[in-house]
Design goal:
heterotrimer; A: 224 residues; mainly beta; Rubrerythrin, domain 2; 2 domains; 1 helix; 15 strands; globular; C: 442 residues; Jelly Rolls; eight-stranded antiparallel barrel; seven-stranded antiparallel sheet; 23 strands; 15% helix; elongated; DUF4178 domain-containing protein (chain A); DUF4178 (chain A); DUF4178 domain-containing protein (chain C)
């Protein structure tokens, strides 16, 4: 399954583990690489990740929805009032999901085809309308409320990714929250709309192995 | 076990101990009769 | 920084240092990557750290508050180590001020340490929204809460340290609170967002252990402060009930005999003092109580004085008791009446083993105080042959002793209950939703 290739920029060994994830950032020279039938091509450079104290790191393993996963990529996003991480999880069954990490809380989100979303207000937002925080609507029999709607910018990325996360890439992002821990995110730019749906999780319930060690802090008991 | 529970447990033991003692000696503070200080003589009515 | 964190064997550093553009002081960033605003620990100017280039938001050069928990202090609360990284003073427009510390642990995220009137709570942001159960009840994660405060407004008066959002002095949110014992559920609302926080009461001992905080007196109690007697009352009631059950079972094993007739003797018509000796009465136990019951079936408007003496045959030791059977009746404006009893029971405590004679000295009397018509129905009439019948019973356990034991066992529980109710009354009287009966008292 895994495809090992030399980085066209620096020659280091780079791994592509899934055909669904054709993008990756070279661990050594930070080149953004895209894999195709013709081979691997460099499409740009990715900015260095700013220092943070996130407990998650590439290579961390865990379990969610009765399936093991490994953290294989990350995109760091920013907006006017802060920044957050989206970690890409590759599950043992080949599926992938995002672990959003913001304000010390975690969200497990899976991409859903926007074509299947029936909620009219959400389709209007997908088609270019602005969302207003506080707006409520039904989504799959659940009442959801718009928690945030803002322009976000891609700061940096690392590892394997399903898309080309160029630093400076701008998106319009709308966050939705349900009453019982459900959450969803709609992101759009000029070309594309993507929709993610999931729920709040705790790091503990993911039974993480290989958490990032942070100086002066003992690893939590759930990771022992 | 906190202090309070311990102290109350001691109190209960004390009360139970006193009760057991009173039972062993068949004693009651409300018994009308008791051992006479002098025996024999006249046991007249002590009322009215 | 090198980007090869994936294969880096060294632990990542915990803090990042930056320079305050206002005073030049070196500010430690303890939640790098999360923190948005920092209030400089030297001049309390507010800095924006979302960009690598630190921006000054508001320049201050004010007197720094002396914090009970200096920022950077760590403490273990409920099994998790936390570092105090931010500090807020808030109030209801200047009244009822309180303090909030922002706690951080990279593996557990953020918590709040809230100090109100000397009492501490640990707050955690909820990712779920409570559901209404009734007009004043909420339920979340299976816990019910009762409305306590309504229509509050919290204003930020002072900030220090770092925060994961843009802090600003003067910022206001609408607040409301619901409580259950030990937990307060707080709702904060601004123009764009509603957030819920679950605040768990921290006992003074927990705060002393975690952050060496000196306990303070809190009165009236805080809305979610658990009564110091509430939980104990259950434990105490269990212990008390167990002790009493033990005494009951014990008492059952010390049962005595049933009543047996000791003798029947005539009442003289002239009311002279009479004497009769009954027995022998054999007492087998080391100590026992002797119960004597006299029955005078013909007694009417008169009384019988009874002097009992239990005399041990060998030692001549005497145990004595006095009893009287009295019975009066008549008719007045309200109709017929009667009082007293034809039976009289007495007991003698702590009688040792031995063979005893029971000497009964008795004297029958007529009631001369009866005004008008008084029916004596043959009392002290030789034709009716009135008699005194005496019955004897041996026992050990006095019911009164059991009652005294019950009272003694229950007394501490009763005190605890009174203190508990006083505490609960004082606690609830602070509520915006206090029952009307309690409002009248205020």
């Amino acid at each position: 399954m895994s495809l090992h290739l030399p980085c066209p920029n620096c020659g280091a060994d780079v791994v592509f583990r899934s055909p669904a994830l054709p993008n990756r950032v070279c661990d050594y020279c930070r080149s953004m690489l895209v894999r195709s039938d013709a081979g691997v091509a460099k499409v740009g450079e990715v900015a260095a990740l700013p220092f943070d104290v996130s407990p998650v790191q590439i290579g961390m393993r865990g379990r969610a929805d009765d399936n093991g996963f490994e953290v294989i990529g990350r995109v760091r996003w920013a907006w006017t009032d802060g920044a957050w991480n989206e970690w890409l999880l590759l599950f043992d069954d080949g599926a992938n999901a995002w672990l959003g990490e913001a304000m010390g809380q975690f969200m497990l989100l899976r991409e859903q085809p926007i074509g299947k979303v029936r909620t009219r207000a959400l389709r209007e937002i997908a088609n270019g309308k602005d969302a207003r925080p506080g707006t409520e609507f039904q989504l799959d029999q659940e009442k959801m409320v718009v928690a945030d709607a803002r322009e976000v910018v891609c700061v940096a990325a690392e590892g394997e990714l399903p898309f080309t996360a160029r630093s400076g890439w701008r998106l319009y992002s709308v966050d939705l929250r349900g009453r019982h821990g459900q959450c969803a995110t709609l992101q759009r730019d000029d070309q594309e709309v993507t929709f993610y749906k999931g729920r709040y999780v705790t790091l503990a319930e993911l039974a993480p192995r290989g958490l990032r060690a942070i100086e002066g802090w003992t690893l939590p008991s759930y990771a022992a | 076990m906190n202090n309070r529970t311990f102290v109350y447990g001691l109190w209960c033991l004390g009360v139970a101990g006193l009760f057991i003692m009173s039972t062993v000696y068949a004693w009651s503070p409300f018994a009308q009769g008791s051992r006479a200080r002098t025996h024999g003589g006249f046991y007249g009515p002590t009322h009215k | 920084m090198q980007p090869d964190t994936a294969i880096e064997p060294q632990p990542a550093p915990a803090a990042r240092a930056l320079t305050c553009p206002s005073c030049g002081g070196s500010v430690a960033l303890r939640a790098a990557g999360y923190t948005v605003h920092v209030a400089c620990q030297y001049c309390s100017s507010i800095l924006d750290v979302t960009d690598p280039q630190v921006k000054l938001v508001t320049a201050y050069n004010q007197h720094l508050a002396e914090l009970e928990i200096p920022l950077g202090t760590r403490g273990v609360l409920r099994g998790v180590e936390w570092e105090a990284i931010g500090y807020l003073q808030r109030s209801e427009d200047g009244d009822y001020g309180w303090e909030e510390y922002l706690l951080f642990n990279p593996y557990h995220g953020y918590r709040w340490l809230v100090k109100v009137r000397g009492g501490w709570s640990m707050g955690e942001a909820l990712t779920v929204t409570p559901d209404w159960l009734s007009y004043d009840q909420l339920v979340v994660n299976g816990e019910n809460y009762t409305h306590f405060f309504a229509d509050g407004e919290a204003r930020v008066d002072y900030v220090l340290g770092e925060f994961y959002w843009r802090v600003a002095v003067g910022e206001r949110v609408k607040t409301a609170d619901w409580v259950r014992s030990g937990v307060m559920l707080s709702r904060e609302e601004n123009a764009s967002e509603v957030s819920w926080t679950r605040n768990a009461w921290l006992a003074p001992a927990e705060m002393r252990k975690a952050f060496a905080i000196r306990p303070e007196a809190i009165w009236p109690p805080l809305p979610h402060q658990p009564s110091p007697w509430g939980a104990w009352l259950r434990t105490g009631a269990k212990i008390g009930a167990l002790a009493f059950a033990f005494l009951l079972v014990f008492a059952l094993f010390f049962g005595g005999t049933s009543w047996t007739a000791a003798g029947s003797f005539p009442v003289a018509a002239d009311g002279r003092e009479q004497s009769v000796t009954l027995g022998p009465i054999v007492l087998p136990h080391r100590y026992q109580s002797v119960h004597l019951r006299a029955d005078v079936p013909q007694l009417e408007n008169g009384w019988v004085d009874l002097d009992y003496s239990l005399v041990e045959r060998k030692t001549q030791q005497v145990y004595e008791a006095y009893g009287a059977a009295e019975r009066y009746s008549g008719t007045d404006f309200d109709g017929p009446w009667s009082e007293g009893s034809r039976k009289a029971e007495v007991s003698i405590a702590s009688v040792p083993v031995g063979t005893y004679d029971l000497v009964v000295e008795y004297k029958a009397n007529r009631w001369s105080g009866a005004s008008g018509y008084a029916e004596t129905a043959g009392w002290m009439d030789p034709a009716a042959a009135p008699v005194v019948q005496v019955e004897v019973r041996r026992g050990a356990v006095y019911g009164s002793n059991l009652l005294i034991a019950l009272l003694l066992l229950a007394a501490p529980l009763g005190l605890a209950l009174i203190w508990h109710l006083a505490f609960e009354t004082a606690r609830k009287s602070e509520s915006d939703f206090a029952p009307s009966g309690e409002d009248d008292d205020e």
